[in-house]
Design brief:
386 residues; 23 helices; mainly alpha
């Protein structure tokens, strides 16, 4: 009798455990609200997108039940943004950046467009987590294109992680993110980039609003161990900065003592001379500050002994972007009794019909064949502007 009571008691215990577990053997408890995997009717599209992306909703949901595993990423919580990210994974995963650039990108573009439609600050952490969760070069490359539209420091580390393999793309992306933190990180990363990528990165930094830009560029052009072209381009990049912040230091270099650079090679012709002053003169011409350029022209006359400086100023006149210098050049040419090639090039672009007779009188003042050719071109152009 006692044995029967024990057996019946055990059976009752089993029934109670079975009932508490949900009423049938093997039945799981209902998922937590918002968990990934057992998606109801609302999450059907996301589940489909996850399958297309090569992600297993059920396996990701299982992470919820293991205390040692981190919580899964719930794409459903982010609506269209989540769907777009999963479509992006499906379109880009398994492809190299080169294959993506050379092939069809319609699906990638469509996915990014879908994400951008509903993207908000609350989605940024999710995007970054998804970036790290999918260890695939193609997907992460595609995410760099998306991150260009996310002006938030939270994406900076993810973008910077690709700098060794895709330095130019990372430069473009961080410059597009455009926060102070993004540009500062780009400045740090540029130090380890190849020469061409370094120059590209610093040009982008120069066009940013980062307050540390001028000091950063100054450190580059003053660095004696930097490549000659790197130093020239850093100084030339000052032409992208607000004139009131850069005119004084750039003009000081332009009018200062010679600062020759060795090893510029074939690039010397582009600047007019292998001298840091040439980059400063080019920057001033691009800034278009008339008063500063008039100073350069006057100083070139005074320094008759410094032929290098005179050549730098003359050959870079073509890059001047400010108010007209025609009246200044008329006086200068009359005073010196000759016209230079640089002056002729500038006049061919700047003179109008009212200057036609005066330009014709310059043919006899041209000392070089190329200068006479340019004066003839100036006559034709002025006549066509009537």
């Amino acid at each position: 009798m006692r044995s029967l009571v024990v057996v019946l008691g055990c059976m009752l215990a089993v029934v109670l455990v079975w009932w508490a577990a949900g009423g049938s053997v093997g039945t799981r408890p209902e998922p937590l609200p918002g968990s990934v995997g057992r998606l109801g009717e609302v999450g059907a599209d996301v589940a489909t997108s996850m399958a297309r992306a090569g992600l297993d909703p059920e396996s990701e949901a299982m992470a919820l039940e293991g205390s040692a595993a981190p919580p899964p990423i719930d794409d459903r919580l982010h609506g269209l943004v989540g769907e777009g990210v999963l479509e992006l994974i499906g379109a880009a995963r398994g492809r190299t950046p080169k294959e993506i650039l050379a092939g069809k990108r319609k699906q990638i573009t469509a996915a990014i467009h879908k994400i951008r439609q509903r993207l908000g600050p609350e989605d940024v952490d999710y995007l970054v987590k998804r970036f790290w969760s999918v260890d695939d070069e193609g997907f992460r490359f595609a995410m760099l294109w998306l991150f260009r539209y996310v002006h938030d420091d939270r994406v900076v580390d993810a973008v910077a992680s690709m700098a060794d393999d895709l330095p130019v793309v990372v430069s473009e992306t961080l410059a597009a993110v455009a926060t102070d933190g993004a540009v500062r990180r780009l400045a740090e990363l540029s130090e380890k980039m190849p020469l061409e990528a370094r120059i590209d990165a610093r040009s982008r930094i120069a066009r940013s609003r980062w307050p540390g830009t001028e000091d950063f560029l100054r450190d580059v052009w003053e660095a004696p161990d930097a490549a000659p072209r790197e130093r020239m381009e850093a100084l030339l990049a000052m032409s992208w900065r607000p004139p009131e912040r850069v005119l004084e230091p750039v003009l000081e270099i332009a009018l200062g003592e010679p600062r020759p650079l060795e090893g510029l090679g074939v690039d010397e012709k582009r600047y007019g001379a292998a001298d840091l002053r040439a980059a400063a003169v080019m920057a001033l011409m691009r800034l278009g500050e008339r008063e500063s350029v008039v100073k350069l022209l006057s100083e070139a006359e005074v320094r008759a002994h410094d032929e290098v400086f005179a050549r730098i100023v003359d050959e870079n006149l073509v890059g001047y972007t400010g108010p007209s210098l025609v009246d200044v050049l008329k006086e200068r040419i009359a005073r010196r009794g000759r016209v230079t090639y640089g002056e002729a090039v500038y006049l061919s672009n700047a003179c109008g019909p009212e200057d036609l007779e005066w330009i014709r009188s310059l043919e006899s003042l041209a000392e070089e064949p190329r200068t006479r050719t340019m004066i003839e071109a100036a006559i034709v152009r002025a006549g066509l502007k009537r």
